[in-house]
Design goal:
116 residues
């Protein structure tokens, strides 16, 4: 496995763990994801070391994937209720998941192009 692929894999696994932490402590996990998001934007802007950027990008993709799964799970569970789980609003979580995955994908492309 190339160093970039292994860095991406490490990042995705770390992101999955952080995403799973949203079930235990949503506020802390969302804050951690936001911190990684900001660090990734800074890393891409400064053209930092590609391995570090790709690791953070992988973490964003992994965390975003878990958030998206959690949003779909919540929506599917609430479709069966009369008032959609007390009028639960899953769209902010969906938007955060899409932004997280999107930023991770963009950052990984930039890091891979920088590494060449």
């Amino acid at each position: 496995m190339t160093p970039m692929r292994s860095s991406l894999a490490v990042g995705v696994v770390a992101g999955l763990v952080v995403g799973l932490l949203t079930s235990l402590s949503p506020v802390i996990a969302i804050a951690a994801i936001l911190a990684v998001l900001v660090a990734t934007v800074i890393s891409v802007g400064q053209r930092a070391e590609p391995t570090r950027t790709i690791r953070m990008a992988g973490a964003l993709v992994g965390a975003g994937a878990v958030l998206l799964i959690e949003m779909v799970n919540t929506a599917m569970a609430c479709f069966d209720t009369e008032d959609f789980c007390g009028n639960a609003n899953v769209w902010p979580l969906a938007a955060f998941a899409v932004v997280t995955i999107g930023m991770g994908a963009v950052a990984s492309v930039v890091a891979l192009r920088t590494a060449r």
